[in-house]
Amino acid sequence: MVAAxxxxxxxxxxxxKLDRGEVTLEIAPGQIVxxxxxxxAEQQFERLSGVTAVDWHPAEPRFxxxxxxxxxxxxxxxxxxxxxxxxxxxxxxxxxxxxxxNWYEREVFDLFGVVFxxxxxxxxxxxxxxxVGHPLRKDYPVHGYKYSYADxxx
Amino acid sequence: MSDPPIDAPQPAAGPRRxxxxxxxxxxxxxxxxxxMAELDGETIVTADCEIGYxxxxxxxxxxxxxxxxxxxxxxxxxxxAPLSNNLCYCLAVERLVGLEIPPRAQWMRVLLTELTRLxxxxxxxxxxxxxxxxxxxxxxxxxxxxxxxxxxxxFSGQRMMTSYFRIGGLALEPPRGWxxxxxxxxxxxxxxxxxxxxxxxxxxxxxxxxxxVGGVSLADMLDYGVTGPMLRAAGLxxxxxxxxxxxxxxxxxxxxxxxxxxxxxxxxxxxxxxxRQSARIVRQALEGMPxxxxxxxxxxxxxxxxxxxxxxMEALIYHFKIVTEGFRVAAGEVYQVIESPRGELGYYVVxxxxxxxxxxxxxxxxxxxxxxxxxMIEGRIIADTVAVLxxxxxxxGDVDR
Lengths: 154, 401
Fold this sequence. Notes:
The structure holds 2 protein chains of 2 kinds.
Chain A: H1 2-8, E1 13-19, E2 22-27, H2 32-42, E3 47-55, E4 63-71, E5 76-84, E6 90-92, H3 101-112, E7 115-117
Parallel strand pairs in A: 2-5, 6-7
Antiparallel strand pairs in A: 1-2, 3-4, 4-5
Chain B: E1 17-22, E2 34-40, E3 43-50, H1 58-62, H2 70-75, H3 82-97, H4 103-132, H5 135-156, E4 165-166, E5 169-170, H6 178-200, H7 204-210, H8 218-224, H9 229-233, H10 240-243, H11 264-287, H12 306-311, H13 313-325, E6 332-340, E7 343-351, E8 359-363, H14 365-371, H15 373-377, H16 382-392, H17 396-400
Antiparallel strand pairs in B: 1-2, 2-3, 4-5, 6-7, 7-8
């Protein structure tokens, strides 16, 4: 698998590991779309099971964006991982590769504040539109900030 | 009354469009889904889902709890299939820790998750038929569901938020006489399914409301992330219980029902057949239930028996340690999937080596399924929307988490 990806998209795979029966490939953030296109078209990964993220605050690079791919016919699962640093991380969107990525990327944007470049409709999905902050970041307090329930426009 | 000013905006030429706001408080949305549909007459031109009304921050809460405390949170994700969520989380952590689960606990898990599937499908069938106008099916389904909830109560003390599966096995020893109760239910159940089918399968109104409605091509469904019975109704024989067996499903004999049409009627047929298959699995689990312990022998992770705790110093210490400070889990990550009543349920658990999970992501099947909704209703009339919503069988707790 690593060799196939490496041949198609040179220098995209930074690291690969097999742990507890699950394969994880760490992909260079700039090449994620290219790798996903290749895996969908050439390796039958027709399903994107989900996109999520992990915040390793205060370590750097702070964010990991995680893609769970699934090839139904081959009965094979694969995890891709991109590491991003900084307060305002950005990554290219794969919503044009799999349409299911649309909502998953919106969720990661909403809860972690990762901006997906080229996403067709990037806005909050679970939190209200006027929410401040990204709740699943580790530096966001569990009980939230003081929030006024009054309508800000009235 | 004066005439309006002559420079008042005139209605735009062309078809008259109207935006209809369905929900978030609408009975056919089965929870708090808001659907904004742009209508041309009664035909839906575009539709957009607004979710998040039931977002409770469960994933954030999970990061604050000890590993064993998270189990009670997982009940609240998909409140129609609490045991499936318990199971998926426990399997994920058990893989992280490397626990070996005794066969009796595994079989009991199979038995109870299949009863959960029946419970969930009964709610789906009852409410779906009610939405489309068949009231009596709802009453029949909830009659059987009541029996199931009583069984869950007998096992765990709770009707809905069971938390009966724990890391390493079960929460309690199965209650005395459980076989009789389950057997009585499972003996009667196939004929009950016949009753539902009598009311619906050849009912002309039901057929006209469901046949040829809401279908999307299989390739589109895969692309949108749809899983479970909806995918099987479109022709893909993919069931995680067979493809990636967990908790001993490979030892059971059952079939994966599929249809080709992909419409609401096909989904109905698939789920009804799934109920019959689940009943088959429950019977096999009941008859072949192995003897032995109902939790793993892992003193630092699984709570000791009550009697042991009262008589042995070592057991008391382990009990105290687990309850007060939990157990450490080696750093790593696991993505565990199971076939929930709604489709692929995945728990992605990341450990950083402490006693609390670093991250728990819940891949709820309803979230992926709901994304395909606009595709299914665009170009159809409003009344079809209600039928399609019912056939999708989503749970908003599972969507919003």
